[in-house]
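User: Predict the complex with zinc ion.
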Amino acid sequence: MNQPLIAPSLLAADFANLQRDVEMVNQSEADYLHIDIMDGVFVPNISFGFPVLDAVRRYCRKPLDVHLMIVQPERYLEAFAEAGAAVIHVHYEACTHLHRTLTRIRELGCRAGVVLNPHTPIGELEDVLENIDVVLIMSVNPGFGGQTFIDHTYRKTARLKNMLATGGSSAMIEIDGGVSVHNAARLVEAGADILVAGSSVFNAPDPAVAIRELKEGRLPLVA
Ligand code: DX5
Ligand code: ZN
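Assistant: Here is the predicted structure with zinc ion placed in the model:
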């Protein structure tokens, strides 16, 4: 089985020790650092903004995977590209002109990601497949870390994999929310390429080991 790429989510880091936690991610086998931007309007929570992102970027040596949980994300694309985003994910539910927004993300030199809330059908993406580099399936309702994984994600991932293949798309599939070693292997089997993990990484006794276990789809050894 293919090994997934792993994107630890900064939201679960210790904000009083951000440099230490970013350094851990640098030293680990993580492939990205996932950055959750919440505006308190699109989702009922506020995370952090540009000053924190700028500080993180100074130390982070992994590409930044930026997940915008904000209304009118098109207003901030330049700013996030400038802040060092390698991937910019916008929510399908937040974009009136999704095609234009995705095109703009690529013009800015970033990879274009679209996020689907748990209730949003994958079919909504059919007419923009060629404009997408990554589809991010939310496996929880966005807004908070530490929530319970929604089981329909396995089915949704497998259907999306199919739809991408049929449509001739090479977009990657990313999963975000409640991901841990308990569902990683099954998600990869269903077609996931990238796994985002917040609490299962940062609350682990050894986060770098947790990242490796996610990659290998291995359950932790019980002592
Ligand atoms: C939730 C965020 C996630 C969050 C994941 O709205 O998009 O990236 O940090 O956290 P866990 O892995 O704890 O569910
Ligand atoms: Zn996220």
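The radius of gyration is 16 Å.
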